[in-house]
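FYI - complex with guanosine-5'-monophosphate, inputs then prediction.
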Amino acid sequence: MPIDATQPYDPDNIFAKILRGEIPNDTVFEDEHVLAFRDINPQAPVHVLVIPKGEYVSWDDFAAKAPDVEIAHFVRKVGEIARDLDLVEPGYRLLANIGGHGHQEVPHLHVHLFGGKPLGPMLARG
Ligand code: 5GP
């Protein structure tokens, strides 16, 4: 079920539990501010979720509340992770789902990183 991204941060969401080590994950990268791990239900040969460690529900929440250094760090790390996964030359896709129309299911900001095959058009029509 898509979530209402205007709600306050829920500290019991699944990615908060992953960050606390309560649920295992297949980590691709981790540092002080960022965790990247493989999606449990991959939709491409490479499907990685990149999340800030801070408590942000959505992109706009992150943009409004995060310090500039965290935002710059997050943006840089998403790019570095794509490069480290050898996705730059073949190409890849970034996606952030937000709220109901965006079909966001987990209320902790995450960027999907897809790659490893031609990914087709941007959105299904209809
Ligand atoms: P959203 O629809 O919110 O953009 O995507 C949430 C993503 O989180 C989905 O692709 C889903 O497969 C993934 N996901 C949900 N629960 C877990 C989990 O416990 N572990 C991992 N690695 N991914 C999860």
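The first helix runs from residue 14 to 19. The chain is about 25% helix and 20% strand.
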